[in-house]
Design brief:
Order of helices and strands of chain A: EHEHEHEHHEHEHEEEEHEEHEHEHH
Radius of gyration of chain A: 19 Å
Helix content of chain A: 25-40%
Strand order of the largest sheet of chain A: 3-2-4-5-7-6-12
Structural class of chain B: alpha/beta
Largest interface: A-B, 44 and 50 residues
Oligomer: heterotetramer
Distance between the termini of chain A: 39 Å
Strand content of chain B: 5-15%
Shape of chain B: globular
Strand order of the largest sheet of chain B: 1-2-3-7-6
Helix content of chain B: 40-55%
Bound molecules: thiamine diphosphate, magnesium ion
Number of helices of chain B: 12
Largest sheet of chain B: 5 strands, parallel
Largest sheet of chain A: 7 strands, mixed
Chain lengths: 324, 336, 324, 336
């Protein structure tokens, strides 16, 4: 184990897998010479050369399609989206092509590809650069969608993603890159998909989140502790496949839950988690399941307004207050 | 260029082209028949009139070695690359004997073992995938080329230009072929392209580009061979506009061609019929007389009938199969 | 009133509004000379000419962007998507540009535009042509999303959509075009957004759906009647804004509900409706709210398999059985 | 073409260009300062080095009549079109005095009354919108043209080519201007374009296309006037590649230019500095001596300082405003 930032953990996993398998390569905008806008790919060009660290023109739809085609031929591309917001331009390639070809070919062709990058708001990037994309992807059969919170999870789950034979959407968050945790150094350290993580055990209420919002929930849990409320925090980690067993188990124990996400409140994947709890734990619930999501507005530039939009621990406390 | 000069077709070759073109035509007629019979459904697009184009290109490549990808008008490509015609017909009719066990249908034919990558329904959407196949060949230092077919309408899609730029930038061994049949569904070339000389679209990307005729199987094969050899040798992309014509409607459901062209125009173009043209050539070269041709056609009609019967004998998939192949290693959340 | 097909009702509303306002024009693939693949625009080219009925190249992203730009300048485009599945190629224009510019300009610029076309499965169109897109759009602040079931609703709501100063996604369904109802002939007949329709009153269970699935629910209601169960059927009609008042009112009356939609079950907008009911009607519920959605698979070509995927009245009955 | 010949710049005009270019430069420096001070945030992109380009084009059009649209490097365009500089600076610093009351920021400046349509963050995404503005002008039979600016990197985006095809097909009065500053963020032209002669990209669409220099304000204005007049007269699109250079980093956050270019290259290019060039010209034509220039610059620096102070005096928006302008006629579902 070593203390490592989320950024370094992501990079280390890419390095491991590229050293392990010559078919793995990386493609994206400004990832080589410019080292990546979030510096995730720093040093990779020097290490692996232009053949395997491919700087692309600003054509998300085209280079994602090229990566998919390469994957159909057996290569294992890692596509970096400078921000996941830009993956909207590549949605047709990801959803209509990568996600469907295995099915349309009756299993003949696989697409071992990872599309990764930061999702969600950073700091005043305004309306067009602050999307939370994971919910849309998690709605699409044929894709797997991962959204780790800690550096250690990022490391283990990314390695699993790169080794997976299906297209995997790997969602990071601008606010997480600098965060550090103990991280396994084992070059074969992988974390299986479809397993949620209990970030904190508790007995009074379940806070269910993924990515950066898990930290927000942890902070809220501290606040609740002061009020004598013992919250359990579930880090979903894997949206598709979704570990409902762990989620339901927690709810059946605490009988109360709040689902927390940064995405626009209405119509987000958090609503799906919320629905599943209601469908399956109805008789275990002592109160309606709460939800905390981002405000239903395009992300404003003004920091004052931006902070209004993004859920914080205070919003989680307010939601818990309503149900305990 | 040396390679090209030595190409003089043997009688056997020309007979093969003739048989294959007839086979495609009658196979396609049978597909339309199956649609009218309600044995196939959805969108079904035949290649009638365009046979020489696929013949030329797919005889110029190394089958099973070079990559091939196209859109939804894909029956001929699958057949010529060696997919069992019974399987092709079965897929078109949604039977388990199809390469995709009925999950793909007419628009989504694939045959990995022959390096045929489909069979796609989003106009223009498969073009970058073809660029990716070429990318893989180059990455691995193989000498494969990718044959990337698209329609004239598809050649307007932005992702095509994005792919051309990267193909030119990275020297991808990819041949972009515009099957210009002068129409996109119901929209004529002059209504969808600012400049109807589509071959020019490779120029801004420093890609060798040209327009050639696709109605003469023999010349088509020669041009295709010249270009395929050049790309394999030079490991650079190529952009080719191939002039062709579809005699049928856009798809089996398009039954009012008068919305976009006159009977006269069609009659004019029937004079370009690639099969009639090859027949004349076969006669001129004393390779075959009309009787022999007639006999071969009857033989092929019989073959196609038999293929259809066999395909029909294949069962529909069983409901449980619906969850297979969503993922290579897991099942989706089940149920309604 | 006159009996009219859904197709004719949509066309009639377009004709009315184009006659009423010279700024209204229509743009799309094969809508003019070819009369539209679903023949919605039949006769419009003859009536209004090439200037106002614009046949486009197959470039969804580009012509949608051109329509948005024209709308920013004050025109009122009606963009036909040959099928809503193809609108995936235009998502960046719709979501990042049309939906956000009013906000990003602080209200200076409006985008009075309608994007309309058939959404959902037709008949063996396979995986790439059978998407239900409305859920994604209904997640996006800045858009309004309408999905009428009857010819009369289509007529009244489309006229409202064309007169709206915000981008409206108007979702039709291949299976509805031929269906007929009594339709108002009043050239000023409009139906306000955000008002659900009670398709059938009942007291035992609320079936909540939109678009073609309302017919499926009506059929299921007949089946339930035979079993002595009196179902209420709510036609949501307007997904964004959503008429929760009518939905909650029904649930508070029946104490039981099933949300029905054709979209992939997991992560669809139906989950949002489901969540809202659970958040707001928790104490009124006698049983967990049920859900019926499409199977979580790419749409298969085989008719046998396709019919497996699309919810039918039997599936609704089964869901009701679970909760009564 | 006659129009062009009669253009000889008056001293007043040249002084105006000079003042405006200096104003832009110092305004941009102040923007970077505000960023370092933490008064502005997010992505902020300045126009330093490219001033002559905007000067030439925006003096060639009818301000407030012709449509103008660009990407996120948009401060100069807003200023030259007449948006109050205090408002521009306020927007950049997220204050309510901004045209969007702080909701847009540096990348999203708009001024409807001056027909300035922004101000966009998705590379290439605004280009079809510009096509749409031209479409509206044509639809209404007005004689407006649309000036559609994009970067060299943006010119690779597929939607740009889709727009060019429709502009050529429908004769849209739109001028597509590639502000070629030889780099896209950290990717040099030769690494993102298969053929670095970007002007060729209009050719496949039968669009008049050319490459011109954008570092000489006087010549830039002449070329711009020639092209704007031609487009207004002929009601057809035009594609122009304008050679330029950005001296600053890509954005205020880009502080390691050595990742993509050498100090020597920058020094070489400083010799092309459009302001220095105009200064020389002003001297040559005896319009102004160095002292005068120096005085004007001091005056402008003072102006910009005052503008910054005024902008800073404007308050941040109040939290309730977050729900305004999502829709023109309703509010979204509120709360977390
Ligand atoms: C993105 C997209 N838009 C529209 C369609 C509907 N469509 C299917 S084929 C077709 C015409 C394509 O014409 P062309 O590219 O010339 O190919 P051809 O059919 O002539 O072989 C259209 C509009 C589609 N499948 N995908
Ligand atoms: C679709 C999309 N991809 C990537 C980005 C990130 N990005 C912002 S500006 C930029 C470079 C654009 O370069 P160019 O078009 O030459 O304009 P310039 O900055 O040189 O004026 C990139 C990659 C973006 N904003 N949008
Ligand atoms: Mg065609
Ligand atoms: Mg640039």
């Amino acid at each position: 184990m070593a203390v490592m930032s989320y950024r370094d953990a992501v990079r280390q996993s890419i390095v491991d897998e590229m050293e392990r398998d010559g078919d793995v390569f990386m493609m994206g905008e400004d990832i080589g010479r410019y080292k990546g806008t979030f510096r995730v790919s720093e040093g990779l060009l020097e290490k692996f050369g232009e053949k395997r660290i491919v700087d692309t023109p600003i054509t998300e739809c085209g280079f994602t399609g090229i990566a998919i085609g390469a994957a159909m031929a057996g290569l294992r591309p890692i596509v970096e989206m400078m921000t996941m917001s830009f993956s909207i331009l590549a949605l047709d390639q990801i959803i209509n092509h990568a996600a469907k070809v295995h099915y349309m070919t009756g299993g003949q062709i696989t697409v071992p590809m990872v599309v990764r990058g930061p999702s969600g708001a950073a700091n005043q990037l305004s309306a067009q650069h602050s999307h939370s994309m994971e919910g849309w992807y998690a709605h699409v059969p044929g894709l797997k969608v991962i959204a780790p919170t800690t550096a250690d999870c990022a490391r283990g789950l990314l390695k699993t993603a790169i080794r997976d034979n299906n297209p995997v959407i790997f969602v990071e968050n601008p606010g997480l890159y600098a965060t550090k945790t103990e991280v396994s150094e084992d070059p074969n350290y992988t974390i299986p998909f479809g397993k949620a993580r209990v970030a904190k055990e508790g007995k009074d209420v379940s806070l269910i989140a993924y990515s950066r919002m898990v930290h927000v929930c942890m902070k809220a849990a501290e606040g609740l502790e002061k009020r004598g409320i013992d919250a359990e925090v579930i880090d979903v980690r894997s949206l598709l496949p979704l570990d409902t067993e762990t989620i339901f188990g927690s709810v059946r124990k605490t009988h109360r839950a709040v689902v927390v996400y940064e995405d626009w409140r209405s119509g987000a994947f958090g609503a799906e988690i919320h629905s599943r709890i209601n469908e399956n734990c109805f008789d275990d619930l002592d109160a309606p399941v709460g939800r905390v999501g981002g405000l239903n507005v395009p992300m404003p530039y003004s920091r004052v307004l931006e902070l209004e939009c993004i859920p914080n621990d205070g919003d989680v406390l307010a939601a818990v207050d309503k149900i305990v | 260029m040396a390679k090209q000069a030595v190409h003089t077709e043997t009688p056997a070759e020309l007979e093969q082209y003739f048989r294959e073109m007839l086979f495609i035509r009658h196979f396609e007629e049978k597909c339309n028949f199956s649609y009218r019979q309600g044995k196939s459904g959805g969108y079904l697009h035949v290649y009638i009139g365009m046979e020489a184009l696929a013949i030329g290109w797919l005889h110029a490549i190394r089958k099973g070695h070079d990559y091939v990808i196209t859109a939804y008008r894909d029956h001929a490509h699958a057949l010529l690359l060696g997919t069992d015609p019974v399987a092709v017909m079965a897929e078109i009719c949604g039977r388990v004997a199809g390469p995709s066990r009925g999950k793909g249908g007419s628009m989504h034919l694939y045959d990995k073992k022959n390096e045929f990558y489909g069979g796609w329904g989003i106009v223009g959407g498969h073009v970058p995938l073809g660029g990716g196949l070429a990318f893989a060949a180059k990455y691995r230092g193989e000498d494969r080329v990718c044959i990337n077919f698209m329609g004239d309408g598809a050649s307007n899609q932005g992702v095509v230009f994005e792919t051309l730029n990267m193909a030119g930038l990275w020297d991808l061994p990819c041949i972009f072929i515009v099957e210009n049949n002068e129409i996109a569904m119901g929209t004529r070339l002059e209504y969808h392209a600012a400049d109807t000389q589509l071959w020019k679209r490779g120029l801004p990307f420093d890609i060798k580009s040209e327009r050639i005729d696709g109605m003469d199987a023999i010349q088509m094969k020669r041009d295709a061979q010249r270009i395929v050899d050049w790309v394999r040798e030079n490991q650079k992309p190529y952009f080719v506009e191939v002039m062709s014509y579809r005699f049928a409607g856009h798809g089996a459901a398009d039954n009012d061609r008068s919305l976009y062209r006159s009977k006269d125009e069609e009659d004019e173009n029937w004079k370009r019929d690639p099969i009639a043209r090859l027949e004349t050539e076969l006669e001129k070269r004393n390779i075959m007389n009309r009787e022999k041709m007639e006999a071969i056609e009857q033989e092929i009609i019989g073959e196609v009938d038999a293929i259809y019967e066999k395909a029909m004998a294949s069962p529909h998939p069983s409901p449980e199969e619906v969850y297979d192949n969503v993922y290579s290693d897991m099942e989706p959340e089940k149920g309604h």
